[in-house]
Amino acid sequence: MTSLSTHPETVQAIDRNRYLSRNAAFYLLASITVSFLAGSSAPTPLYALYQAQWGFSPIMVTVIFGIYALAVLVALLFAGRLSDHVGRRPVLMVATAVQAATMVLFATASGVGDLILARIIQGLATGAAVGAIGAGMIDLNKERGATANAVAPAFGTATGGILAGLLVQYLPAPTHVVYAVLGVIFVLQGIGVALMAETISPAPGALASLKPQFKLPAATRGPLLLALPVLVAAWALAGFYGSLGPMLVRGMLGTGSALLGGLALFVLAGSGGLAVLALQHREPRAMMTFGAAMLVAGVGITIWALPHHSIVVFLIGTSIAGMGFGAGFQGAVRSIVPFAAPHERAGVLSIVFIVSYLSMGAPAIAAGALVARHGDILGTAQEYGIVVMALALAAVLAAALRLATRRAARVPG
């Protein structure tokens, strides 16, 4: 019998070979963000079918949309910092498994109650995971991670809306196929997470981290305050497009097409993702200012297009507003999260997403209530857009004031 001795170098090589490379792990985490956000937007083109089957009102559409955002908020409050203590992998393995199970609930839904239950569970899984995913990408690569945290949600939202629209439009079983595809993706990603090395060492305080708190590291408080108007404006706009956008587009075109119903959200999120890629090397505050300016311009164009029923101009305005959404959100993330220490990143990202999802859900529900009460979706959309423009304009003016103050400070007195 031959005796084998294992050298430390060999053990380290074997250990490395057990796991995905850092590069592969990074892209896996980015893909999970894409698929989770795709899953959240997949029901958007299906709302017309659900309304036809179950006969609910526009306010119920926004409740179904808003309940997801509320569930995300709850999960962020209670579990947003958990991965800073137990590690990224355990949180993500549970989250991907729950997402896969939720697709079964969506596919077998027989009424509004089932749909709401599925949205709640989906939101809880997403909220528990987004901080862990984003922090994990920054753990692996600080610069690319900050960019991916802004790019992946936009592309995920765009992918979900258009993928669902295509499957509904051209394949049978429209309320089943899209969820089956996503379910398979979640299972495969869960397997990938199991093969991924942990990106941080465990830290004490896991149980204490489940206590909701809005504690921010001192270094991130100022940047978050400066980013607040852009975050609120961008995500409020995304909430409107994700809930009532399909109804608005179908009304303008006079069609019930599911594919066209998801088109506006696809254009908004897709142009946002492209803007992030194109502007990723710009200074964060400059990106936020640019994003706010694009929100003002894009929303202004869409407001003009609504009473003229010009779908082309509406989509042009939507693409410009989408650039503002992507640039503004990336600028906010890049100006906040890198100032946090490794064991603070998931918590800080969770607070950023709490602000974002609250801004997305609450105004959308309010808009749905107005539409249900007055039956005027065009008027509601115009009023909604004016509020978004006001917030974005406040961000632009604040940026101009900061710049003027800096210049004045550099002038010798």
Give a brief rundown of this model.
The chain has 413 residues and is mostly helical.
Task: Describe it.
α2 packs across α8 and α4 crosses α7. By secondary structure, the chain is mainly α. It is globular and about 55 Å long. The chain has a single domain, classed as MFS general substrate transporter like domains (Growth Hormone, Chain: A), CATH 1.20.1250.20. The relative contact order is 0.15. The protein contains 18 helices and no strands.
- Average pLDDT score: 82
Largest sheet: none
Roughly how much helix do the residues carry, as a percent range? over 70%
Oligomer: single chain
User: How many separate structural domains?
Assistant: 1
Which runs of at least 5 residues are low in confidence (pLDDT < 50)? 1-14
| CATH level-3 fold name | Growth Hormone, Chain: A
Inertia-based shape: globular
Q: What distance separates the N and C termini?
A: 87 Å
Radius of gyration: 22 Å
CATH superfamily: MFS general substrate transporter like domains
How does the helix and strand content classify structurally?
mainly alpha
DSSP, total strands: 0
**Percentage of residues in strands:** under 5%
Identify the CATH architecture.
Up-down Bundle
* Number of H- or I-type helical stretches: 18
CATH class: Mainly Alpha
Order of helices and strands: HHHHHHHHHHHHHHHHHH
